[in-house]
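Summary for the lay section of the report: proteins are chains of building blocks that fold into shapes. Here we show the chain for Histidine phosphatase family protein and then a coded description of the shape we predicted for it.
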Amino acid sequence: MLPIGMGYYILFSMTRIYLIRHADAYDEEGVQLNDYHLNNFGKVQALQLAKRLSGNKFDVMYCSKIKRAIETCEIVNEQHDNEVVYSSKFNEVGSEDWPQPTVITKPKILADYKVTSDRIYQIFKQVINEDKDKEVAIFTHGNWIRVLLVKIVANGNHEAFAHFMVSNSSLTIIDVDSGGFEHIVTVSDGAHTHLYETKI
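The coded shape description reads as follows.
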């Protein structure tokens, strides 16, 4: 820590978490079942993401046990050859009762949302504690990331859930300083899908 006067300090120690939503796995009718493989467009997205992250040095990689996340992780990891920890802790969450963007719903108490929110935040804190000062990639799912963001910025208020959109193959980056404070660096960043031309 570096003192800067008036009792304030700069915290240099930082853990960086890359929350990566899997690439596209919807079918031709726009349906994504629980354990779909990536479609061709999703494979292109994953290759674009891999190009963007090729210069990163990840200390740890975690991944959901659902196929679309695993396949995204495998494509990205071809650039890194890291050992990956696969865990159902990072699997998709949610139900049709949860509020969604563009859908008007009446406010209601969602007990399952609160339980899920608390659980995901504890998983996140566990990763921070176990991988302190490291660069960590977590290949997971849209709702998982949205729940965590809402927990951080709105104390888990489920009404804020609908205000977040997390795109396929996007990056959401959170830095956590040595004091445990979360700094949200970027949300649903998909710039790589425009920067890199990739064919399969």
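Put simply, here is one thing we learned. The chain is about 30% helix and 20% strand.
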